[in-house]
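Dock D-glutamic acid; give full complex structure.
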Amino acid sequence: MWLLDSGIGGLTIARAIRRRLPGLVQHYMADHAAFPYGGLASESLVARVCDLVTRAVAAHPVDAVVIACNTASTVVLPALRARLSIPVVGVVPAIRPAAAASTSGVIGVLATPGTVKSVHVATLIERFAGDCRVVKVGAPGLAALAEQYWRDGTLDTDALARELSPLQAPEWHALDQLVLGCTHYPLLQEAIAAMVGAHVTLVDSGDAVARRLEDVLGDASLKQGDSGGGRFYTTGGPMEDAGLAARIRAEGFRAMLVGEPAPV
Ligand code: DGL
């Protein structure tokens, strides 16, 4: 299976898939050269992701593709499915379970600016959270804070507080469920939880994506992979640091490579 994200956020999806389908070989494409996706125009995002994924699948054929990025999933899935003959699974912000679990009827959706203003999210809110008051927060810099934190363990807590500040407004004090609508954000789970308070449950989409993938793969999901796991590619930029290769291997990948996959 191929996973794609703008960066290392998709690792939170890869981990959930590995928990559920430990034998499945995962190849990962981190499009750091175009990070962050949250600020890109939809047309550029669709063209870029379709090209990248099509070339990746041609180089390493797989049984399915997971777009491990909410921002991309909100816009590219129809075009990508039209280009590929294998299943494509996307990530959807977990608005439905958050609304179902809320007792106060006040929920939040924390995501990239692109995701919060998408028609897709508006539709999910209308369908599944019609009874709730919903605060949508488009956080311009939160994915970059997560990238930094994963790389070297440093976190600018003032910047984090600024990204989360719309949630602190008095009108949202009854908020009890917060959807982490970007795959990078579970990497900052503890820091976000400490800032929003223990009365707020953080809800992400990792397990739901893993279940969906298992369904679409059927027997193929049981296929045992090669012992060393799949490969992690980055299109460039901040990952060109030898020290990070060890972190990537610790995530279950055999190797980290800069550039796009070549046919084998
Ligand atoms: N990880 C991505 C998502 O789930 C996007 C982060 C970004 O590139 O802006 O939305």
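Observed: Residues 47 and 91 are 19 Å apart (CA to CA).
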